[in-house]
Amino acid sequence: PVGVVVYKLVDKSDPASLRLVYANDASAEITGLDASVEVGRTIGEITPAILETPLPATYSQVALSGEPADLGSVTYGDDRVAMRTFSVRAVPLEDRMVGVVFEDVSERAELAELKRAREEADRNEKSFRTLFDAMKDAVLVYPLGTDGPGPILAHNRAALDSYGYSSEELSELS
């Protein structure tokens, strides 16, 4: 769902004076806030922590300048709104009002972060493997237990050359 809220900037010099004049049902579904209760309240009365972010100033600037702003991905949460990542756009409306269109993109953001982490892990593994295999000394990696060494978990090329085993044979040794 796509949330839409409209704020009116009551005092041109005070972003905290943004007063909610409209919120669609999707905004309530996304934020968990009851729009019928919140309409008429200022942005700081609805979500006090938002005043510590650049969002109110950005919304005020859009309302005053008449220029829309694509805020991209914004992560926000407080005592009333669960921490989520939102795609946010602010569009100017008449009479010092600003429409804020937002969508919960938390799952997409989490998937993108997971993909970045996986790619970094792959790069790190390749770097490690390159260094590991470049070592001239034989290296065997295995756990040490109270009963002695466990199965060989990893080895480098020098170990294969030194001991004369294939990779499969060496992995079967303990």
Task: Please write out the topology.
Blueprint: E1 3-9, E2 18-23, H1 25-31, H2 35-38, H3 43-46, H4 55-65, E3 69-76, E4 84-93, E5 97-104, H5 106-134, E6 140-141, E7 144-145, E8 148-149, E9 154-155, H6 157-163, H7 167-172
Antiparallel strand pairs: 1-2, 1-5, 3-4, 4-5, 6-9, 7-8
Could you walk me through the main structural features you see in this protein, from its secondary elements to its overall organization?
- The protein is an alpha+beta fold and 174 residues long.
- It is built from 7 helices and 9 strands, in the order E-E-H-H-H-H-E-E-E-H-E-E-E-E-H-H.
- The protein has helices at 25-31, 35-38, 43-46, 55-65, 106-134, 157-163, 167-172; strands at 3-9, 18-23, 69-76, 84-93, 97-104, 140-141, 144-145, 148-149, 154-155.
- The strands form 3 sheets. A 5-stranded antiparallel β-sheet has the order 2-1-5-4-3.
- It is rod-shaped and about 80 Å long.
Concise description?
This protein has 174 residues and is α+β, with helices and mostly antiparallel strands.
| H/E element sequence | EEHHHHEEEHEEEEHH
**In terms of structural class, how would the helical and strand content be classed?**
alpha+beta
In spatial order, strands of the major sheet run 2-1-5-4-3
Mean pLDDT: 89
Distance between the termini: 57 Å
The radius of gyration over CA amounts to 28 Å
Count of helix runs: 7
Shape: rod-shaped
Q: Helical amount among residues, as a percent range?
A: 25-40%
The tally of beta strands, per DSSP, is 9
Low-confidence stretches: none
The proportion of residues in beta strands is: 25-35%
Sheet with the most strands, sense and barrel status: 5 strands, antiparallel
